[in-house]
TrEMBL record:
Catalyzes the transfer of a two-carbon ketol group from a ketose donor to an aldose acceptor, via a covalent intermediate with the cofactor thiamine pyrophosphate. The gene is TKL1. This is Transketolase. Belongs to the transketolase family. Binds 1 Mg(2+) ion per subunit. Can also utilize other divalent metal cations, such as Ca(2+), Mn(2+) and Co(2+). Binds 1 thiamine pyrophosphate per subunit. Residues 353-529 form the Transketolase-like pyrimidine-binding domain.
Length: 677
C-alpha cells in the first residue's frame, strides 16, 4: 500500500496547500501525483543534501500550474522546504511563489516555469547541455556526466509555439537523455480540450523524431508507468514522450472538470476527499510516518549515488587531472585566468568596421580560451557572424556534420525556442550559452528573455542589424522600439557598443556578469574607432568621450552608431562657437550601478543634455533635456538616406543642439540625476 499511500498523501497535501492560500491550482498536482511518485521513487537520481551535484538527474515541471506538486515533492524528499513553507504558498516573500522560480532560494527547482511552453523548452536545453558535457569530459570507465532530464508537461504547454520550436530541435539532435511525461487530462482553462486542441500529439512528436508511448490509466497504473519510463530510457537515440491519460483533480467531487484547475476545492470537498483516501478529515497538512520514511529512503539512495560519483570523480582526477581541473573550474563558475587580455584593442587609425564584425573578432579571440562558451544563431550565422574559426557544430555523433562535443548550435529559425533552450543550458551549469539573431527578432524571443532575467541565467544575446542602419530591409526589420522594451526588463544588461573597444567591453560585461543575461546590440554598417574609448570605460555604462577646453555649452549623449555622429556634430558646433561635451553611453544598466558622484560627472548640473539614438526616444528623459531619435516606424532605403531622412546627420543634430542651448541661455538646467529622492 506504500505507493498508493504516497500518491494519496500528495493529493490531499495539494488540496490543503491551495485551500489555505485560498488561491492556486490543485487539479494538476492531484492528477499528476502518480507520475511524480514513480519518477522520484524509481528513476530520478538526486541528492537533497547536495542539490547542485552536476551529474544529478533534472526534473522540470513544465506546466507551472502544478507548482504545488513540485513543492510537495521537494518537502517530502528533504530539500530545504519545510511544512511551514508549504503553508505559506503564494504568500509575500515565501519560498513557495505561485509558480516555480529558479535561483530564488529553493533547492531542486532547476528552471522557472509558469508561462506555458517554457519548461519543456528549458528541458531541451538541459538535455543538450548534458550531451555536450558528457561528450567533452567523459572517458572510458569514467561517465562523470551522465544523467537524464525528466519533464512533466500538459495540454497547455503543448499548444505553445515555443515548445514546438524546441522539441523539433530536440528530435533533430536525437537527445535520448530527455524523457517527457505528457499529462493528458483533456482540460485547459477554457474547459475540455475538444474546443481547440484535437491534434494527434504523438503523431506530431513522431514526425519530430521522438519515441512515443501511451499509458491509458495514469490514475492507477503505477506498474505500467514505471515500465513505460524504463522503455523510454532504453531508447538512447531519440527523446521520448509518454502520453498518460489522467483525471484532473482526481478524488475531488469535480474531478475531470475545469472547475478543479485553478481554484481551491472548498472545505466540504477536501473533507470528503480525505475520508475517501483514508485520512482524518479534520487533520490538515498531515503526512503519515510511512510516507516520510519512503521518501527519506529515496533520498538515501540519492545520497549513495552521489557518494559513488564522488569516488568515481576522485579516480577520474587521478587518471585525467587536466580534464578534472577544467570541469571543476567550470562548475565553480570561474572564468579562465587572464582571459580579458585576449580582447581586441583598437585605435582611431584602424579602419572603420561594423560592430557585428568586431563581435566576430572577439569570438575568434576568446572562443578557444573560454571553452564553456557555447551557442549559435537562429539561421543567420552568415549575418550574425557568430561562428568562430575552427568551430565544430553541435550535432548527433555519426551525423557527419558535427558531434555532441561541438559547441556551435544550429538553432534554425527558432528565435523563441533558442532563447528558452539557452536558459536550460545555463541552468545545467558549467556552460555559458549565447544565441543570435537580428535585433528586431528578439521580440519573438522576449518571453524567454524575460525568464533569463527573472531566473538570473547568464545568457548572452548577440543581436545584429540594429535600427535603420540595416537599410533596405525596411520597417518590418528595423527595431525602432525594441531597445526600450528590453531596457525595461529588470536584471538584464543591454549594451550598444560604438566601436571596437566598446564591443570588446560589451563581451567583458557579458562574461563577467554571472547572474544575469546580457543583450549585445550590433550594427550592420561600418563605424569608426573613437579616440578615448576603452574596455574599462565601457564597463561603467557611460563615460565622457570628449570634453572641450574651458566651459561646455551642451552635453551630447549617444549610443552605438550615433556616438560617432555626436563626435561629428560636436566638431560642427565648435566651428560655430558652441562647445559640446560628448558622452558615450553603451549601457544604461551598468551606468545606474555607478556611484552618484560619478554619474553627476557624466551628466553635470548647469549644462543641457541632448540624446541621440536611432531608436525611439522613450526613456531618454531620465538623462536628457531633449532628444533626437525616431518615434515612428522606419523606412526602406539605403542606410545613409535613412539617417538623413530621420535627421540623424550632423547638420540636423547641430541645429537641434543650438536650439537647446539657446532655450537654456540665462537659465541653469539641473542634471536629471540631481533629484531630492
Amino acid at each position: 500500500m506504500t505507493d498508493q499511500q504516497c500518491i494519496n498523501t500528495i493529493r490531499v497535501l495539494a488540496a490543503d496547500v491551495v485551500q489555505k492560500a485560498n488561491s492556486g491550482h490543485p487539479g494538476a498536482p492531484m492528477g499528476c501525483a502518480p507520475m511524480a511518485h514513480v519518477l522520484f521513487s524509481d528513476f530520478i537520481r538526486a541528492n537533497p543534501a547536495v542539490p547542485d551535484w552536476i551529474s544529478r538527474d533534472r526534473f522540470v515541471l513544465s506546466n507551472g500550474h502544478g507548482c504545488v506538486l513540485q513543492y510537495i515533492m521537494l518537502h517530502l524528499l528533504g530539500y530545504n522546504l519545510s511544512m511551514d513553507d508549504l503553508k505559506q504558498f503564494r504568500q509575500l516573500n515565501s519560498k513557495t511563489p505561485g509558480h516555480p522560480e529558479a535561483n530564488h532560494g529553493v533547492h531542486g527547482i532547476e528552471v522557472s516555469t509558469g508561462p506555458l511552453g517554457q519548461g519543456i523548452s528549458n528541458a531541451v536545453g538541459l538535455a543538450l547541455a548534458e550531451a555536450h558535457l558528457a561528450a567533452t569530459f567523459n572517458r572510458p570507465g569514467f561517465d562523470i556526466i551522465s544523467n537524464y532530464t525528466y519533464a512533466i508537461t500538459g495540454d497547455g504547454c503543448l499548444q505553445e509555439g515555443v515548445q514546438a520550436e524546441a522539441v523539433s530541435l530536440a528530435g533533430h539532435l536525437k537527445l535520448g537523455n530527455l524523457i517527457v511525461l505528457y499529462d493528458d487530462n483533456h482540460i485547459t482553462i477554457d474547459g475540455d480540450t475538444n474546443v481547440g486542441f484535437t491534434e494527434d500529439v504523438l503523431q506530431r512528436f513522431e514526425a519530430y523524431g521522438w519515441h512515443t508511448e501511451v499509458l491509458a490509466d495514469g490514475d492507477h497504473d503505477v506498474v505500467g508507468l514505471a515500465a513505460a519510463i524504463a522503455r523510454a530510457k532504453a531508447v538512447t537515440d531519440k527523446p521520448s514522450i509518454i502520453k498518460i491519460r489522467t483525471t484532473i483533480g482526481f478524488g475531488s467531487v469535480n474531478q475531470g472538470e475545469e472547475k478543479v484547475h485553478g481554484a481551491p476545492l472548498g472545505a466540504k470537498d477536501i473533507s470528503d476527499l480525505k475520508t475517501k483516501f483514508g485520512f482524518d478529515p479534520e487533520a490538515h497538512f498531515h503526512v503519515p510516518y510511512e510516507v516520510y520514511a519512503h521518501y527519506r529512503a529515496v533520498a538515501a539512495k540519492g545520497a549513495a549515488a552521489y557518494a559513488g560519483w564522488v569516488k568515481l570523480f576522485d579516480e577520474y582526477k587521478a587518471a585525467h587531472p587536466d580534464l578534472a581541473a577544467e570541469l571543476s573550474r567550470r562548475i565553480a563558475g570561474e572564468l579562465p585566468a587572464n582571459w580579458r587580455s585576449l580582447l581586441p584593442v583598437y585605435s582611431p587609425a584602424d579602419p572603420a568596421v561594423a560592430t557585428r564584425k568586431l563581435s566576430e573578432n572577439v569570438l575568434n579571440k576568446i572562443a578557444l580560451a573560454i571553452p564553456e562558451l557555447i551557442g549559435g544563431s537562429a539561421d543567420l550565422t552568415g549575418s550574425n557572424l557568430t561562428r568562430w574559426k575552427g568551430a565544430v557544430d553541435f550535432q548527433p555523433d555519426g551525423s557527419g556534420i558535427g558531434t555532441y562535443a561541438g559547441r556551435y548550435i544550429r538553432f534554425g529559425v527558432r528565435e523563441h525556442g533558442m532563447a528558452a533552450i539557452c536558459n536550460g543550458i545555463n541552468a545545467y551549469g558549467a556552460l555559458i550559452p549565447f544565441g543570435a539573431t537580428f535585433f528586431n527578432f528578439i521580440s519573438y524571443a522576449l518571453g524567454a528573455v524575460r525568464l533569463s532575467a527573472l531566473s538570473k541565467h547568464q545568457v548572452i544575446y548577440i543581436m545584429t542589424h540594429d535600427s535603420i542602419g540595416l537599410g533596405e530591409d525596411g520597417p518590418t526589420h528595423q527595431p525602432i522600439e525594441t531597445l526600450a522594451s528590453i531596457r525595461a526588463l529588470p536584471n538584464l544588461v543591454t549594451l550598444r557598443p560604438a566601436d571596437g573597444n566598446e564591443t570588446s567591453g560589451a563581451y567583458a560585461a557579458a562574461l563577467e556578469n554571472r547572474h544575469r543575461p546580457t543583450v549585445i546590440i550590433l550594427t550592420r554598417q561600418n563605424l569608426p574607432h573613437l579616440a578615448g574609448s576603452t574596455v574599462e570605460k565601457t564597463l561603467r555604462g557611460a563615460y565622457v568621450l570628449s570634453q572641450p577646453e574651458g566651459h561646455a555649452d551642451i552635453t551630447l549623449v549617444a549610443t552605438g552608431s550615433e556616438v560617432s555622429l555626436a563626435v561629428s556634430t560636436a566638431a560642427l558646433l565648435a566651428n560655430e562657437g558652441v562647445h559640446a561635451r560628448v558622452v558615450s553611453m553603451p549601457s544604461w544598466e551598468l551606468f545606474e550601478e555607478q556611484p552618484h558622484d560619478y554619474k553627476l560627472s557624466v551628466f553635470p548640473d548647469g549644462i543641457p543634455t541632448l540624446s541621440i539614438e536611432a531608436m525611439t526616444t522613450l526613456g531618454w528623459s531620465k538623462y536628457a533635456h531633449a532628444s533626437v531619435g525616431i518615434d515612428t516606424f522606419g523606412a526602406s532605403a539605403p542606410a545613409p538616406l535613412l539617417f538623413k531622412k530621420f535627421g540623424l546627420v550632423p547638420d540636423a543634430v547641430a541645429e537641434k543642439a543650438k536650439k537647446l542651448v539657446a532655450f537654456y541661455k540665462g537659465r541653469v538646467p539641473e542634471s536629471k540625476l540631481n533629484l531630492p529622492f
